[in-house]
C-alpha cells in the first residue's frame, strides 16, 4: 500500500467512543469532546488596557482635573464630569463618562496640576470594551478542538477548571525475537539490545500519548498468542520484529488465529516496507519492522497518525511543508524511497547523502524531516521544491 493510501485509510477511521473529565492543568494537547459555550462575557466590564489617565475624548484640548486614582480590583463606580479625569491602572474599571486613556508615559501637568493630554492621542485609546472579545452564549471552543496553551487560558478565563475530553487510546508495546535483550540485561556480542520498544514509546510520549511496555515476545506461537490475548483492554497493540517473511515470523499466523483482519501487509516505501496493520472490532495491532530505522519511520508514518485519529485530533497526519532540496540525489525508480534529512530556513538536505542501512539508528537521530519519493521517480535535483514531513 502506498503511503498516501495509508493516510487515506487512517482518515477513514472513527474516533474512539468515550470521553473523560480532566483537570484543566492536565488537559494540554487533549481534544475537546463537545462544544464549549461561553458563560462569561469578556471583558466583563469596560477597563483600561494600560496605566494612564481616563478621560472623555471631547475634552482633549482642555486641561483636565485629576479626581483621584482607580486601582485594579476596585469595584466602586466612579464618574467624571466635563474636563475631569481619573488616573487609572491596567485592568481597572473605567469611570462613567470616560472613553479614552492617555498612557502614563505621556503624562504632562500644567502649573495647577491639571493633566494636559497630547493632541495625537487617538479616541478610545486603550479602552477595553465589555464583550469585545467574547459574549456569554457564544461558542468558545468547538468539539474536536485541541487544547493549546492559549485555549487553556481561554477556559480558565471563563472559570472552567475541569474539561470534558476524548479518551486517549490505551496502548501496549511488545518487542519480539529470541535475539532481543533488554537494556538492563547482560547481552552478548551475538545478540542485540531492545532499541525499538523504547523508540516507539518515546515517539508516542513526545506526542502526548502514554503507553505500557509489555516486554519481549519470544518466537513461539503459543507465547505470542497468550500475550496478545492478555491485552483485551488495549485499543492499540504495537509489536516490532516478525514483520517480514522469515521462517520464524509467527505474528501473522497468530493474528489470523485470533480473527484479526489485515488492513495492509506492507508500505510501499523503503525502508518501512515490512509494516503490517490488523484490526478486530475497535482494536488495532501494528506489526512493525525489526530494523530500528525502519521501525521508527513506520511509527511516524502509521502508528502516530492512527493514534492521533483515534484520539480525535483534526490534524493527525505528519506535519507537511514545502522546501527546496539542496544537493543531487539518485535512487531506485522502481519503488518509493524515504529520504531522511534536516530542514532549515526552507531548505532540506539529505543526511549522509541518504546512504544508510535500515538497521542503523544514528542517521535518523540526526534528522528531523523525511521526503517520500513517488514510484518512477529516480532522484531529486538541486533546488527542486519538494514536500517533506516532520518526524521529530
What does this entry look like structurally?
The structure is a single chain. The strands form eight sheets. A six-stranded mixed β-sheet has the order 14-11-15-18-17-16, sandwiched between helices. A five-stranded mixed beta barrel has the order 19-22-21-23-25. The longest helix is centred in the C-terminal third of the chain and has 19 residues, at 292-310. The chain has 392 residues and is α/β, with parallel strands linked by helices. Helices cover 17% and strands 27% of the residues. It contains seven helices and 25 strands.
Please tally the helical runs, counting DSSP H or I stretches of 4 or more residues.
7
Mean pLDDT, all residues: 94
Count of individual beta strands: 25
Task: Give the strand order of the largest sheet, numbering strands 1, 2, ... along the chain.
Answer: 14-11-15-18-17-16
Summarize the main sheet: 6 strands, mixed
The percent range for strand residues is 25-35%
Rounded radius of gyration (Å): 30 Å
Determine the N-to-C terminus distance. 24 Å
Low-confidence stretches: none
Choose one word for the global shape. elongated
* Secondary-structure-derived class: alpha/beta
Range of helix content: 10-25%
Q: How does the SSE layout of this entry go?
A:
Elements: H1 3-11, E1 19-23, E2 36-37, E3 47-48, E4 52-55, E5 65-70, E6 84-88, E7 100-103, E8 127-128, E9 139-141, H2 149-156, E10 162-166, E11 171-176, E12 180-181, E13 192-193, H3 196-206, E14 212-217, H4 221-229, E15 236-240, H5 251-257, E16 261-264, E17 276-280, E18 283-288, H6 292-310, E19 320-325, E20 329-330, E21 338-344, E22 347-350, H7 362-365, E23 369-372, E24 379-380, E25 385-390
Parallel strand pairs: 5-6, 11-14, 11-15, 12-13, 15-18, 19-22
Antiparallel strand pairs: 1-10, 2-9, 3-8, 4-6, 4-7, 16-17, 17-18, 19-25, 20-24, 21-22, 21-23, 23-25
Amino acid at each position: 500500500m502506498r503511503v498516501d493510501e495509508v493516510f487515506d485509510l487512517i482518515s477513514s477511521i472513527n474516533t474512539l467512543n468515550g470521553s473523560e473529565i480532566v483537570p484543566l492543568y492536565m488537559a494540554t494537547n487533549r481534544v475537546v469532546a463537545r462544544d464549549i459555550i461561553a458563560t462569561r462575557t469578556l471583558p466583563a466590564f469596560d477597563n483600561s488596557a494600560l496605566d494612564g489617565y481616563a478621560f472623555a475624548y471631547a475634552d482633549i484640548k482642555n486641561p483636565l482635573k485629576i479626581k483621584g486614582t482607580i486601582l485594579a480590583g476596585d469595584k466602586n463606580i466612579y464618574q467624571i464630569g466635563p474636563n475631569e479625569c481619573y488616573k487609572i491602572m491596567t485592568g481597572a474599571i473605567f469611570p462613567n463618562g470616560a472613553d479614552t486613556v492617555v498612557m502614563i508615559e505621556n503624562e504632562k501637568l500644567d502649573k495647577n496640576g491639571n493633566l494636559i493630554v497630547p493632541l495625537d492621542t487617538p479616541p478610545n485609546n486603550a479602552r477595553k470594551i465589555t464583550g469585545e472579545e467574547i459574549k456569554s452564549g457564544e461558542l468558545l471552543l468547538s468539539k474536536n478542538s485541541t487544547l493549546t496553551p492559549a485555549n487553556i487560558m481561554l477556559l480558565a478565563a471563563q472559570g472552567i477548571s475541569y474539561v470534558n475530553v476524548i479518551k486517549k487510546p490505551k496502548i501496549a508495546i511488545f518487542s519480539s525475537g529470541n535475539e532481543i535483550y533488554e537494556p538492563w540485561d547482560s547481552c552478548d556480542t551475538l545478540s542485540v539490545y531492545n532499541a525499538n520498544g523504547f523508540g516507539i514509546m518515546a515517539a508516542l510520549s513526545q506526542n502526548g500519548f502514554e503507553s505500557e511496555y509489555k516486554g519481549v515476545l519470544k518466537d513461539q506461537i503459543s507465547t505470542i498468542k497468550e500475550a496478545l490475548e492478555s491485552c483485551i483492554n488495549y485499543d492499540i497493540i504495537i509489536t516490532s520484529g516478525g514483520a517480514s517473511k522469515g521462517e520464524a515470523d509467527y505474528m501473522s499466523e497468530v493474528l489470523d488465529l485470533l480473527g484479526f483482519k489485515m488492513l495492509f501487509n506492507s508500505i510501499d516505501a523503503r525502508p518501512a516496507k515490512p509494516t503490517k496493520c490488523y484490526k478486530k472490532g475497535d482494536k488495532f495491532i501494528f506489526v512493525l519492522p525489526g530494523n530500528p530505522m525502519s521501525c521508527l519511520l513506520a511509527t511516524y508514518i502509521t502508528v502516530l497518525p492512527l493514534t492521533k485519529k483515534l484520539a480525535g485530533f483534526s490534524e493527525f497526519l505528519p506535519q507537511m511543508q514545502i522546501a527546496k532540496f539542496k544537493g543531487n540525489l539518485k535512487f531506485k525508480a522502481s519503488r518509493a524511497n524515504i529520504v531522511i534529512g534536516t530542514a532549515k530556513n526552507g531548505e532540506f538536505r539529505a543526511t549522509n547523502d541518504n546512504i544508510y542501512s535500515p538497521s542503523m539508528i544514528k542517521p535518523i537521530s540526526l534528522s528531523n524531516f523525511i521526503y517520500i519519493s513517488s514510484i518512477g521517480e529516480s532522484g531529486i535535483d538541486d533546488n527542486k521544491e519538494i514536500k517533506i514531513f516532520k518526524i521529530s
